[in-house]
Amino acid sequence: FASGESETTETEVESSEPQVQETDGVEGENAGAEGSEAEEEEAAVTIALLNSYKEALAENNEEKIAEIEASLKSIEDEKFQLEDKVASLSNDLSTERDRLIRISADFDNFRKRTERERLNLVSNAQGEVVENLLAVLDNFERAKSQIKVETEGEERVTNSYQSIYKQFVEILGSLGVVNVETVGKQFDPMLHEAIMREDSAEYEEGIVLEEYRKGFLLGERLLRPSMVKVSAGPGPEKPQEAEVEEATAQGSAEEEAASS
């Protein structure tokens, strides 16, 4: 008998344990179904009221008519309230959507600005380092122009020196350093520093004739301008002007011959 009571108790304990059910989205579907059923029920109630209203009108039952009209007015008022609520929620949704778009745009601008600032910092740091190295490059080039090889030992030293110079230039190139173009190019005050002007029959006015010191760019940043000599003109004689001068000279010669 005691064992029977124990078995009964164990059975009750097991049956009292909560049962876990997996929904997997069924609740959302049920909610949608319940909403549709509620709408159908409200429509059925409204239709029933309208039918009752017709019957009351036919029977001329004023009390029932007033009661149904009050119910219909209550439904209509509730409908207006719901429409206002929907409009308000739609407006709130539109406002929040616009705010989200603005926040997204602000974040994108912040990200781009931060990236530009980072690149500027890197470029400035590189620029400062390279600017300090330009003086070393100038010394290399001055020494190169002054070296005169006379012995085999001096030639070996010169070759070693040239190898170091070449490697130094390649390192600057790998950092993005390039020479400012000069001879034969139009003078640009943003890139060139004119230290002399000279008449030239070969180049038009404003064209760079000679470079005295190299200028360098790091990307779009000017590390230092080139020191140059600039043409003051008049440049090469134009074919049309030459023909006019020749014709003028020929005419003058003919006039002198005729007068003589």
Q: How is this structure best described in words?
A:
By secondary structure, the protein is α+β, with helices and mostly antiparallel strands. Among the domains are: about 80 residues, no CATH class; about 70 residues, Head domain of nucleotide exchange factor GrpE (Nucleotide Exchange Factor Grpe, Chain A, domain 2). The chain has 5 helices and 6 strands. The strands form 2 sheets. A 3-stranded antiparallel beta sheet has the order 1-4-5. A hairpin with a 2-residue loop joins strand 4 and strand 5. About 5% of the residues are buried.
Task: For the largest sheet, list the strands in their spatial order.
Answer: 1-4-5
Mind describing the biggest β-sheet?
3 strands, antiparallel
- Uncertain runs: 1-24
Instruction: Sum up the overall morphology in one term.
Output: elongated
Task: Report the end-to-end length measured between terminal Cα atoms.
Answer: 165 Å
Strand content: 5-15%
Residue-averaged pLDDT: 79
Class per helix and strand makeup? alpha+beta
Radius of gyration, in Å, reads 48 Å
Percent of residues in helices: 55-70%
H/E series: HHHHEEEEEEH
**Total E-strand runs:** 6
Please work out how many helical segments DSSP would assign. Answer: 5
